[in-house]
Amino acid sequence: MPNFKITLEYDGSRYAGWQAQKSKFPTLQETIEKVLRRILREKVKLIGSGRTDAGVHALGQVANFKTNSKIPLEKLQRALNGLLPADISVTKIGEAAKDFHSRFSAKSKTYRYTILNRPYRSAFLRKGAYFYPYLLDLKLMQKEARVLLGKHDFKSFCASASSVKDTVRTIKRISVKHFIPNTEHRTLNLITVEIEADGFLYNMVRNIVGTLVEIGRGRFPEGSTKKVLRLKNRKLAGPTAPARGLALLKVKY
Amino acid sequence: MPNFKITLEYDGSRYAGWQAQKSKFPTLQETIEKVLRRILREKVKLIGSGRTDAGVHALGQVANFKTNSKIPLEKLQRALNGLLPADISVTKIGEAAKDFHSRFSAKSKTYRYTILNRPYRSAFLRKGAYFYPYLLDLKLMQKEARVLLGKHDFKSFCASASSVKDTVRTIKRISVKHFIPNTEHRTLNLITVEIEADGFLYNMVRNIVGTLVEIGRGRFPEGSTKKVLRLKNRKLAGPTAPARGLALLKVKY
Known about the structure:
Two copies of one chain form a homodimer. Chain A has 253 residues and is an alpha+beta fold. The first copy, chain A, has helices at residues 28-40, 73-83, 138-146, 204-217, 224-231; strands spanning 3-10, 47-48, 57-66, 88-96, 108-116, 130-131, 150-153, 168-179, 190-197, 246-252. In chain A, strand 2 and strand 3 form a beta hairpin. The radius of gyration of chain A is 19 Å and the shape is globular.
């Protein structure tokens, strides 16, 4: 059966995540599958590159599905965007190799975490950023983040509820930046943490950000990242930063 | 009585505008006045620099009010942001001259209109941009916009329902730009129209944008702006572009 790759943008605020066991909120996967079924008139299994959590967003989530339908791709994209809720958008669609699997074929993923760091909140970024009103030492956060680069056992940054055995991952890129949108919105004062890795543990980005924020605020001393990493104990890392600041930016194959 | 100037950010989606006669939706003015009254324990009249319409946003709306309260400004700002709904934020507050009037003292205002110009919609910019999926000729729109620069009778771009007599205004700056956010969000493809003027007629920005879009799409021929301006007839201009793309950026004093 022909295999299709779709790239998705979504505002995760309203969803129980990509996939959920039991929840009163809809999941992204079931919402999109339902619309695909309606358009293609057959049951479709949508495989996502990974399960984004409840409230987490995506600018470049990738998923794939197989179908025998002969519908032209452009028409399929238009139909999907016509029928999907306004907080989900299909930005790209294309035929993929028969053995392409959005999860197993992925070489790396990039997440971005956005912190609104100013004394007063934003009327616009309510669901797209973590509002943190206290001064953060950006330089120190950058220095501490660099320690995480490379192959490490990230057990300290993995949710304790996770049952995964192998907690070794490779961070290929980590950047902590002052992000100034090129608009009149000069007062926004955003700090973004972008992490590209070959894989992520449960809550890994949010736990890393939570730790960097504690360091930036001065509640954890310099050198904490290294120490937390070495001791392999979730209790030593900072709190889990809120889901609303997190977005899956890109999946590389 | 001491006079205070506040700068506001708001997502106008949920409001009947800054001020409205009758509406089942709240207005921004009454929402903020209510909170001021609660904090200052006296009735306060809030004067806005202008009435943004229902659904129109602001990044830099300015308003002023008089009070005898001795509350420190920083504390007042914190209290306001603590009690106001999440879609309104006070970004600045300061004491102003006794005769400062947010509307009459204004030298110019700047509005920005945002168009999302790509074939598929955005999961995020649902309320902050006008989604226009057809190709627009940016260069031609820029050329046609320049015609509006300077002092003109903008009657053609004024809502016909308006009762205003003097329809002459001066546009100090008008720019039509490709706006590429400096993020991974490269696919956004936004077009922004920014207009600074000494004053605006009712629906003036939205009618100018509606006209420029018709020109950019090729439905109005080159030279239309000049012709529409000269003939002083609202019926010749393009349709009123939707409120959700419009934001009051700045008020200069």
